Amino acid sequence: MARRIHEAYSGLSEGERRIAETILESPAELAVFTASELAGQAGVSNATVSRFFRRLGYSNFEEARQDARRMRALGSPLYTGRKSADRSDPISELIRNEIALLETTLTRVNPLTIKEIGQAIATAPRIRTLGYRNSHFLAQYATAQLAQMRPGVSPLLLPGQTQAEGISMLGKGDLAIIVGLRRRPSGFVRAVEEIAERGASILLIADQTIRAAPAFATWTLECAVDTPQFADSYVGAVSMLRLLTLETRRALGEAGRVYLEEVEELRGRLGELE
Predict the structure, then answer these.
(1) How far is Cα 94 from Cα 256, in angstroms, rounded to an integer?
(2) Are 131 and 137 in contact (CB under 8 A)?
(3) Could you tell me the CA-to-CA distances from 83 to 87, 186, 194, 231 in Å, in that order?
(4) Of 54, 106, 126, 131, which cross-links 174 as Cys (Cβ 3.0–4.6 Å)?
């Protein structure tokens, strides 16, 4: 959409340019505006709004709005977030939104499923974690937490490795923890499918836009990420991973405590922490 606006800008009338400026200032608003609301924001008539979008190549305003909604659903930073109604207290607004994401994410989870996954994490011969783009640091978080409690936990893709080399090391009985929040790379589903082909169990941490990949997963846990602010929030996903960590600690029992003590003792001998 932005590209269409820039390409057409030099030929726009004054009223149409006001519409263009309104959209470019906050593209996410287009996903929720009506034609009349956009006209009011830009100070033009509804007819000018209709003419503007036809000039951009859309058949009507609704087609353009659906395009914006599609981009919002995909998590494009240009189309996430909306203008805040309460600009005087951004901290309180953020707290409210983050709490809502936590509640939405964690209230969807079946405690029996979490217990089952915790047991699988505790007993799998090997655990490999995987995440692309922003999901990468969440996969690293899972690795760091689980590696303190049991051996055999590491990233699926090590520096210098190809995907094939990482996936080929998995086998029957192993567990792959895959974080796949939206804006996944184009080969994501294929990678999940290939991991399943190796016979490994798959825990998929995703959001509501996930498609196809859950068919290859043993468990799929959905996390809410969409907020009224710019960019997605991962507070729900982090809490989900923490919940799994706590359940795994319970499932490991005495063995987990002993292993953690060994790790802590080794840290002390190496002087790794202050």
Answers:
(1) 36
(2) yes
(3) 9, 31, 42, 13
(4) 126
